[in-house]
């Protein structure tokens, strides 16, 4: 009897996982790790936009919690006027300049350079107006080409098709908001407060965290945010996934209880996933609110598509990858820093030898390209059957008596920029020419 009482006392004071709970926890651990392991072929994981009119944030706790690499641009927030220098620096980042004609978000061929873009709160319209149309188009292109996106408060407004006022039946800012989610946001009218969050019953956020078992997160900061509007005049777009709802019962302040607070949209197989959140979980460093933000980041990055090969290489043909961004020919465009280019080779039966040759152009000796080959799966450096890692662009790889069928060949640009932190965030130093891409030639013989 004494033993039973002791065991009961221990269980009352200690968190004990039952077998079913332990299995669920293990599945969530694996789900989180699977997403994190999927992030190969990008320069870095997260780019944080703290640009003109947005909250001047320099750290993002979720990136530290998930051990994700990050860079950021910071401009003056909505309380301060921007200078011409601020505008120029922001334009360089999001649209490009001579040393980087495509901007930081995109590789020379238009592929996403970062795995995810996070956009802070603040003033959505002030920030949108501070960006040129070309810069806004680049953000849209970034997601359309496979980069994922998380926007909180202003970041949610900005990525919608526009703001909507149901009482007046009026839309606003449709020419400035970029429509990553083609629906309309509606202001909550709630400022300087907190809200509860009810996780949707089948929300994919539950793949990664259990939120204490009650699917509820309390006291998430809220300051003038939004919800996803769904009505006869502005119905919810097909494909919208509701991830969480507001739990806010003070109807004397606002009537937002049960309104969608977090939602996701993925336009197609080749696009990234956009996640919009009306509140502010981004600054929290621990607990369920951090898990709430982390679940959004993980589900967004889980939407990055599998890369498509550039082409099928044929024996004896030399493929020249030397086009620039301005040529708008992604299949033949140069490779960017820390980027992979993938190719396919269909090896015939009874092939005695597969020879792969990689060559650079004049001046290519200052860039380091890695050549990899793998059977039936994309040839990343950590899983390639064969790889050649050495200085310069020129190298060759030979596979004796290769298996018949599909082989994947990849080129990885190891050369990248150096970084520092300045008054407006990340600064690139070193040889910036790599930002406009490294040209090379590739051929196979079998």
Topology:
Layout: H1 2-13, H2 19-37, E1 44-50, H3 61-65, E2 70-74, H4 84-94, E3 114-119, H5 124-130, H6 133-144, E4 148-152, H7 154-158, E5 162-165, E6 170-172, E7 184-187, E8 193-199, E9 216-222, E10 226-228, E11 241-247, E12 260-266, E13 273-277, H8 287-301, E14 311-312, E15 318-321, E16 340-347, E17 353-360, E18 369-375, E19 386-388, E20 395-400, E21 405-413, E22 418-422, E23 425-429, E24 440-445
Parallel strand pairs: 1-2, 1-3, 3-4, 4-13, 5-7, 14-16
Antiparallel strand pairs: 5-6, 7-10, 8-9, 8-11, 11-12, 12-13, 15-24, 16-21, 17-20, 17-24, 18-19, 18-21, 22-23
How would you portray this structure in words?
- It contains eight helices and 24 strands.
- The longest helix is centred in the first third of the chain and has 19 residues, at 19-37.
- It has a nine-stranded mixed β-sheet. Strands 14-16-21-18-19 form a five-stranded mixed β-sheet, with no helix packed on it.
- It has helices at 2-13, 19-37, 61-65, 84-94, 124-130, 133-144, 154-158, 287-301, and strands spanning 44-50, 70-74, 114-119, 148-152, 162-165, 170-172, 184-187, 193-199, 216-222, 226-228, 241-247, 260-266, 273-277, 311-312, 318-321, 340-347, 353-360, 369-375, 386-388, 395-400, 405-413, 418-422, 425-429, 440-445.
- The protein is 19% helix and 30% strand.
- The chain is globular and about 80 Å long.
- With 446 residues, the protein is an alpha+beta fold.
